[in-house]
């Protein structure tokens, strides 16, 4: 069983886990769009399910650790989203 962490530990654990999950999620989203546009839709659908499943598991574990872990995980996910959007806007034609 997953124990609740102290709030001081929930904040960095949640943020780091959410940020890492966000980087993976949005990097593979870019690859997923490429597969849908130019490759095989079957692989894209499988990748979409894997992306969402992984994110669901990470957020579920953070929720089990505590409310602050989940909240900071969501913030980390949004920070990663912002960074990835800036990265892909800079290289877009």
Please characterize this protein's 3D structure.
By secondary structure, the protein is an all-alpha fold. It has one domain. It contains 3 helices and no strands. The radius of gyration is 15 Å and the shape is flat. The chain crosses the membrane at residues 12-33, 53-79. InterPro entries: AtpR-like.
Key descriptive features of the protein:
88% helix, 0% strand, 93 residues
Summarize the structure.
With about 90 residues, this protein is an all-alpha fold.
SSE map:
Blueprint: H1 7-38, H2 41-65, H3 67-91
Q: Regions with pLDDT < 50 over 5+ consecutive residues?
A: none
DSSP summary, beta strand count: 0
Q: What's the number of structural domains?
A: 1
* Helical percentage: over 70%
Largest sheet: none
Report the total helices: 3
């Amino acid at each position: 069983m997953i124990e609740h962490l102290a709030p001081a530990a929930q904040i960095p654990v949640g943020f780091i886990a959410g940020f890492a999950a966000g980087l993976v999620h949005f990097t593979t989203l870019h690859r997923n769009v490429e597969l849908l546009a130019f490759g095989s839709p079957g692989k894209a659908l499988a990748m979409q399910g894997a992306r969402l499943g992984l994110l669901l598991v990470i957020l579920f574990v953070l929720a089990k650790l505590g409310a602050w872990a989940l909240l900071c995980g969501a913030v980390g996910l949004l920070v990663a989203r912002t960074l990835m959007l800036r990265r892909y806007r800079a290289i877009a034609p």
